[in-house]
Amino acid sequence: IMKFTEHLSAHITPEWRKQYINYEEMKCMLYAAVEQAPSAELVEPDVVTRYFAKFDEQFFHYCDKELAKINTFYSEKLAEATRKFGSLRNELSEAQEDEFRAKEGMFRHRPKILRKRDVPARKIQELKLAFSEFYLSLILLQNYQNLNFTGFRKILKKHDKLLCVDIGAKWRSGNVETSHFYINKDIDRLIQETEATVTQELEGGDRQRAVKRL
After folding, report:
1. How would DSSP label each residue in 1-66?
2. What's the pTM?
Protein backbone atom coordinates (compact mmCIF):
# COMPACT_ATOMS: atom_id res chain seq x y z
CA ILE A 1 0.00 0.00 0.00
CA MET A 2 1.30 3.45 -0.91
CA LYS A 3 2.12 5.57 2.15
CA PHE A 4 0.25 8.87 2.39
CA THR A 5 3.48 10.90 2.04
CA GLU A 6 4.09 9.21 -1.33
CA HIS A 7 0.44 9.54 -2.32
CA LEU A 8 0.55 13.25 -1.50
CA SER A 9 3.73 13.97 -3.47
CA ALA A 10 2.40 11.95 -6.42
CA HIS A 11 -0.89 13.89 -6.59
CA ILE A 12 -0.03 17.48 -5.74
CA THR A 13 -0.09 20.28 -8.29
CA PRO A 14 3.66 21.13 -8.47
CA GLU A 15 3.32 24.93 -8.57
CA TRP A 16 1.18 24.78 -5.41
CA ARG A 17 3.67 22.56 -3.55
CA LYS A 18 4.19 24.91 -0.58
CA GLN A 19 0.43 25.41 -0.14
CA TYR A 20 -0.35 21.82 0.89
CA ILE A 21 -0.35 20.40 4.40
CA ASN A 22 3.25 19.76 5.49
CA TYR A 23 2.44 16.18 6.38
CA GLU A 24 6.04 14.95 6.42
CA GLU A 25 7.13 17.67 8.87
CA MET A 26 4.20 16.91 11.19
CA LYS A 27 4.99 13.20 11.10
CA CYS A 28 8.63 13.92 12.03
CA MET A 29 7.44 16.09 14.94
CA LEU A 30 5.31 13.23 16.26
CA TYR A 31 8.00 10.55 16.02
CA ALA A 32 10.63 12.85 17.54
CA ALA A 33 8.32 13.66 20.46
CA VAL A 34 7.75 9.98 21.22
CA GLU A 35 11.46 9.09 20.89
CA GLN A 36 12.62 11.97 23.10
CA ALA A 37 9.95 11.50 25.77
CA PRO A 38 11.21 10.92 29.32
CA SER A 39 10.92 7.30 30.37
CA ALA A 40 7.91 6.61 32.59
CA GLU A 41 10.06 4.19 34.65
CA LEU A 42 12.65 6.85 35.44
CA VAL A 43 10.59 9.95 36.20
CA GLU A 44 7.43 10.99 38.02
CA PRO A 45 4.19 10.59 35.98
CA ASP A 46 3.54 14.34 35.98
CA VAL A 47 6.91 14.94 34.26
CA VAL A 48 5.74 12.81 31.32
CA THR A 49 2.33 14.52 31.36
CA ARG A 50 3.94 17.98 31.28
CA TYR A 51 6.30 16.93 28.49
CA PHE A 52 3.44 15.81 26.23
CA ALA A 53 1.27 18.80 27.16
CA LYS A 54 4.12 21.08 26.04
CA PHE A 55 4.57 19.07 22.85
CA ASP A 56 0.84 19.22 22.07
CA GLU A 57 0.90 22.98 22.48
CA GLN A 58 3.60 23.21 19.79
CA PHE A 59 2.04 20.56 17.56
CA PHE A 60 -1.44 22.08 17.50
CA HIS A 61 0.01 25.55 17.02
CA TYR A 62 1.68 24.13 13.89
CA CYS A 63 -1.65 22.56 12.85
CA ASP A 64 -3.33 25.97 13.27
CA LYS A 65 -0.76 27.61 10.99
CA GLU A 66 -1.12 24.90 8.34
CA LEU A 67 -4.91 25.13 8.44
CA ALA A 68 -4.83 28.93 8.08
CA LYS A 69 -2.45 28.63 5.10
CA ILE A 70 -4.74 26.10 3.38
CA ASN A 71 -7.91 28.11 4.04
CA THR A 72 -6.33 31.28 2.65
CA PHE A 73 -4.98 29.62 -0.49
CA TYR A 74 -8.25 27.78 -1.15
CA SER A 75 -10.28 31.00 -0.76
CA GLU A 76 -7.99 32.89 -3.16
CA LYS A 77 -8.14 30.17 -5.81
CA LEU A 78 -11.91 29.85 -5.43
CA ALA A 79 -12.39 33.62 -5.88
CA GLU A 80 -10.18 33.48 -9.00
CA ALA A 81 -12.21 30.57 -10.39
CA THR A 82 -15.52 32.34 -9.74
CA ARG A 83 -14.31 35.45 -11.59
CA LYS A 84 -12.95 33.36 -14.46
CA PHE A 85 -16.25 31.49 -14.84
CA GLY A 86 -18.11 34.80 -15.03
CA SER A 87 -15.83 36.16 -17.74
CA LEU A 88 -15.99 32.91 -19.76
CA ARG A 89 -19.79 33.01 -19.59
CA ASN A 90 -19.74 36.62 -20.85
CA GLU A 91 -17.42 35.72 -23.72
CA LEU A 92 -19.69 32.82 -24.62
CA SER A 93 -22.78 35.05 -24.67
CA GLU A 94 -21.00 37.55 -26.92
CA ALA A 95 -19.82 34.81 -29.30
CA GLN A 96 -23.35 33.40 -29.49
CA GLU A 97 -24.74 36.85 -30.29
CA ASP A 98 -22.09 37.32 -32.99
CA GLU A 99 -22.97 33.94 -34.44
CA PHE A 100 -26.66 34.79 -34.43
CA ARG A 101 -26.02 38.15 -36.10
CA ALA A 102 -23.74 36.52 -38.67
CA LYS A 103 -26.41 33.97 -39.56
CA GLU A 104 -29.05 36.67 -39.89
CA GLY A 105 -26.69 38.79 -41.98
CA MET A 106 -25.94 35.93 -44.35
CA PHE A 107 -29.34 36.26 -45.89
CA ARG A 108 -29.16 40.03 -46.27
CA HIS A 109 -25.51 40.75 -47.11
CA ARG A 110 -24.33 37.47 -48.48
CA PRO A 111 -21.01 38.56 -50.09
CA LYS A 112 -19.79 40.54 -47.08
CA ILE A 113 -20.73 37.86 -44.59
CA LEU A 114 -18.92 35.09 -46.43
CA ARG A 115 -15.65 36.75 -45.48
CA LYS A 116 -16.59 36.98 -41.81
CA ARG A 117 -18.56 33.81 -41.34
CA ASP A 118 -15.71 31.78 -39.81
CA VAL A 119 -15.00 34.33 -37.06
CA PRO A 120 -17.74 33.18 -34.63
CA ALA A 121 -16.92 29.52 -35.39
CA ARG A 122 -13.26 30.11 -34.57
CA LYS A 123 -14.23 31.97 -31.40
CA ILE A 124 -16.43 29.05 -30.33
CA GLN A 125 -13.47 26.67 -30.80
CA GLU A 126 -11.30 28.96 -28.67
CA LEU A 127 -13.99 29.00 -25.99
CA LYS A 128 -14.25 25.21 -25.99
CA LEU A 129 -10.52 25.08 -25.29
CA ALA A 130 -10.75 27.81 -22.62
CA PHE A 131 -13.59 25.99 -20.82
CA SER A 132 -11.60 22.76 -20.99
CA GLU A 133 -8.54 24.39 -19.37
CA PHE A 134 -10.75 26.09 -16.78
CA TYR A 135 -12.43 22.77 -15.94
CA LEU A 136 -9.03 21.18 -15.32
CA SER A 137 -8.14 24.00 -12.90
CA LEU A 138 -11.39 23.31 -10.98
CA ILE A 139 -10.58 19.60 -10.72
CA LEU A 140 -7.11 20.47 -9.39
CA LEU A 141 -8.66 22.71 -6.73
CA GLN A 142 -11.13 20.00 -5.72
CA ASN A 143 -8.19 17.61 -5.52
CA TYR A 144 -6.34 20.15 -3.30
CA GLN A 145 -9.37 20.25 -0.99
CA ASN A 146 -9.52 16.44 -0.70
CA LEU A 147 -5.77 15.85 -0.26
CA ASN A 148 -5.47 18.39 2.56
CA PHE A 149 -8.48 17.02 4.41
CA THR A 150 -7.08 13.48 4.11
CA GLY A 151 -3.70 14.76 5.31
CA PHE A 152 -5.22 16.27 8.45
CA ARG A 153 -7.34 13.18 9.11
CA LYS A 154 -4.33 10.87 8.85
CA ILE A 155 -1.83 12.95 10.83
CA LEU A 156 -4.31 13.56 13.67
CA LYS A 157 -5.16 9.85 13.78
CA LYS A 158 -1.42 9.09 13.96
CA HIS A 159 -1.08 11.66 16.77
CA ASP A 160 -3.78 9.95 18.83
CA LYS A 161 -2.44 6.46 18.18
CA LEU A 162 1.17 7.31 19.15
CA LEU A 163 0.20 9.35 22.21
CA CYS A 164 -2.75 7.15 23.27
CA VAL A 165 -5.17 10.11 23.43
CA ASP A 166 -8.19 11.44 21.52
CA ILE A 167 -7.17 15.13 21.36
CA GLY A 168 -6.42 14.88 17.63
CA ALA A 169 -9.90 13.59 16.83
CA LYS A 170 -11.43 16.43 18.85
CA TRP A 171 -9.21 19.01 17.15
CA ARG A 172 -10.21 17.65 13.76
CA SER A 173 -13.95 17.90 14.43
CA GLY A 174 -13.61 21.33 16.06
CA ASN A 175 -11.22 22.89 13.54
CA VAL A 176 -10.77 20.99 10.28
CA GLU A 177 -14.37 19.86 9.81
CA THR A 178 -15.65 23.39 10.40
CA SER A 179 -13.02 25.11 8.23
CA HIS A 180 -13.80 27.02 5.04
CA PHE A 181 -11.76 24.82 2.73
CA TYR A 182 -13.65 21.72 3.91
CA ILE A 183 -17.26 22.86 4.31
CA ASN A 184 -17.33 25.16 1.28
CA LYS A 185 -19.03 23.39 -1.64
CA ASP A 186 -18.67 26.17 -4.24
CA ILE A 187 -16.04 24.18 -6.10
CA ASP A 188 -18.54 21.32 -6.66
CA ARG A 189 -21.13 23.81 -7.87
CA LEU A 190 -18.66 25.42 -10.29
CA ILE A 191 -17.73 22.00 -11.69
CA GLN A 192 -21.41 21.15 -12.25
CA GLU A 193 -22.15 24.54 -13.81
CA THR A 194 -19.15 24.25 -16.14
CA GLU A 195 -20.25 20.76 -17.23
CA ALA A 196 -23.79 22.06 -17.81
CA THR A 197 -22.60 25.13 -19.76
CA VAL A 198 -20.35 23.09 -22.07
CA THR A 199 -23.07 20.45 -22.56
CA GLN A 200 -25.92 22.88 -23.31
CA GLU A 201 -24.13 25.79 -24.97
CA LEU A 202 -21.14 24.26 -26.75
CA GLU A 203 -21.99 20.62 -27.43
CA GLY A 204 -25.67 20.93 -28.35
CA GLY A 205 -26.93 19.07 -25.29
CA ASP A 206 -24.65 16.05 -25.83
CA ARG A 207 -23.40 15.39 -22.29
CA GLN A 208 -21.18 12.47 -23.28
CA ARG A 209 -19.36 14.57 -25.83
CA ALA A 210 -19.05 17.44 -23.33
CA VAL A 211 -17.53 15.22 -20.63
CA LYS A 212 -15.14 13.71 -23.19
CA ARG A 213 -14.04 17.20 -24.24
CA LEU A 214 -13.55 18.31 -20.65
Report:
1. ---HHHHHHHHS-GGGGGGS--HHHHHHHHHHHHHTSPPTTTS-HHHHHHHHHHHHHHHHHHHHHH
2. 0.87
